[in-house]
Design a protein that fits this description.
- The chain is mainly α and 485 residues long.
- It has 18 helices and 8 strands.
- It has one domain: Serine Threonine Protein Phosphatase 5, Tetratricopeptide repeat.
- It has a two-stranded antiparallel sheet with strand order 1-3. Strands 2-6 form a two-stranded antiparallel sheet.
- Helix 2 packs parallel to helix 6, helix 5 runs antiparallel to helix 6 and helix 13 packs antiparallel against helix 14.
Length: 485
């Protein structure tokens, strides 16, 4: 058995800390993990803790989506030194700017999940009559999501080199001195799909605000299959979500205001961010996309839309997505600041509380599922692909709709850029499409010695290094460092 040391995984507390808004039940007792989980209510505590880990600042609370947005060419920076500009300049090494927080949070979550799954199996073997199905399904789906996110950060794209090193596949409880090694990318994807398929029949088909349900699982399957270029399975999964009618697209009139409320009709999986537990205030995800000083006396707003993204939006002055754009610091007319995760340009937040920084993060929403369906159908049924694309393309009401003769991947890519900007997708999309990313460096005086004007997936900088602390505690994984680091 391969070994991996991850410091955050050595001690696993069953009493996951969080605030009263997030944890509404307590474990039967807070002792040893072997005895603490006795009931479904106890299992829910652990799932609440996993959701808390996912919403942490080092994961979906900020760092993971920020990584994908600012590296993908749709955003730029006007000045260095405000925070995370090293993402934009690809200035990473094993010992500096390693961006290791997602790894640490991710494997911490996996440790919690594996502990829960092992305990559930023990209780079922002992004849427990408790209904653990939903929590088991959520645990498996969460593990798949974390592994998918981590392998995209640390492994080569599946469609480039699936035999390259990915991340450790950890599916069991670990002893304190475990030192697991990396698995191959293709083995990571195999485990991701094993978990997703095992979970889908355990999950409810009703909405679960703040949690994973059957359709969140299916939407994630569509994502994974799309990255694998398994288009028939990606289309089938996306189509099931769409055809269920459990979720509905926002109309053009509703789209802008949808960012001012929680758990809307498109929200398939949305992580709750509350003021008293995970509010990053001026360091929040949304604050990094605002105009400098807007809503604060501090310099925030490090990232603004690139000319490339704005030029796509400028194809239609009535595109509804202009409604979350506002002027940036470069001029009184350039609408380069994006306010999705501030609850709109008036900083209304999403909880009717005037808090514009504790804003939920939408991990999966229905618009993305339509765009995945369009991409998955492109090679087999261009008319169907156009139908799915047009459902989102209509948010630019003055642009011609696609049809079977005009639709292509570039149209879908441009629509994903406009619809999903500021939601943590663009870099991963460009890399899996094997497209060259061009950066709008001219807007400010930026030092980009770590990359050129463009970058593509041939560069070692498009995946992260295994960081120094991990290598120091696990010498075996040091021998599996990513090339160039």
């Amino acid at each position: 058995m391969r070994k991996l040391f991850i410091a955050s995984c050595i001690f696993i507390s069953v009493s996951v800390s969080s605030c009263k808004d997030f944890l509404d039940v307590k474990p039967t007792n807070s002792g040893d993990a072997e005895t603490s989980i006795q009931t479904a209510a106890d299992a829910k505590v652990i799932i609440n803790g996993v959701m808390s880990i996912l919403s942490n600042r080092d994961y979906y609370g900020r760092n993971f989506p920020l990584y994908a947005d600012v590296k993908g060419g749709d955003f730029t920076i006007f000045a260095a030194g405000r925070g995370f500009d090293y993402l934009y300049t690809f200035n990473h090494s094993a010992s500096s700017n390693s961006y290791s927080g997602v790894w640490t949070q991710g494997f911490n979550g996996i440790a919690q999940i594996n502990n829960l799954l092992a305990r559930i199996e023990t209780l079922k073997a002992e004849g427990s009559l408790e209904d653990f199905k939903s929590y088991e399904g959520q645990a498996l789906t969460s593990r798949a999501l974390i592994n998918f996110d981590l392998v995209r950060l640390y492994g080569e794209p599946y469609n480039e080199d699936k035999t390259a090193w990915g991340i450790p596949n950890i599916t069991t409880k670990l002893v304190s001195n475990a030192q697991e090694l990396r698995s191959k990318v293709e083995d990571n994807y195999k485990q991701i799909l094993i978990d997703l398929k095992a979970a889908e029949t355990l999950l409810p088909k009703t909405k679960l605000n703040g949690y994973l349900n059957y359709y969140a699982n299916k939407a994630l399957q569509a994502r994974v299959y799309l990255y694998m270029e398994d288009y028939p399975n990606a289309l089938a999964a996306a189509k099931e979500v769409i055809d269920s009618k459990v979720y509905t697209l926002y109309s053009n009139a509703e789209w802008v205001d949808s960012w001012k409320s929680e758990f809307g009709s498109e929200s398939i999986f949305e992580l709750a961010i509350y003021p008293n537990e995970s509010d990053l205030v001026n360091a929040s995800f949304g604050a990094y996309f605002r105009r400098s000083y807007h809503g604060s006396s501090a310099i925030i707003g490090n990232f603004l839309a690139s000319d490339y993204l704005l030029n796509r939006l400028k194809e239609d002055s009535e595109d509804v997505r202009w409604g979350v754009m506002a002027r940036d610091e470069t001029s009184a007319t350039r609408l380069g600041s994006i306010y999705k995760y501030s609850g709109g340009i008036n900083l209304e937040g999403d909880k009717k509380s005037s808090n514009s920084t504790a804003v939920n993060f939408k991990v999966i929403r229905l618009s993305e599922v339509y765009l995945m369906a369009a991409e998955a159908a492109l090679k087999s049924d261009k008319a169907l692909a156009a139908t799915y694309l047009n459902a989102i393309h209509m948010r630019s009401p003055n642009l011609a709709l696609a049809d079977a003769t005009t639709i292509n991947l570039d149209m879908i890519a441009d629509e994903r850029s406009k619809e999903l900007a500021g939601e943590g997708h663009r870099f991963f999309d460009m890399i899996r499409w094997n497209k060259t990313i061009e950066f709008n460096d001219e807007l400010g005086s930026i030092n980009t010695t770590n990359r050129g004007k463009t970058i593509d997936r041939k560069s070692n900088k498009t995946i992260l290094p295994i960081f120094l602390d991990e290598m120091n505690t696990n010498p075996g994984i040091a021998a599996q460092q990513n090339p160039g680091y």
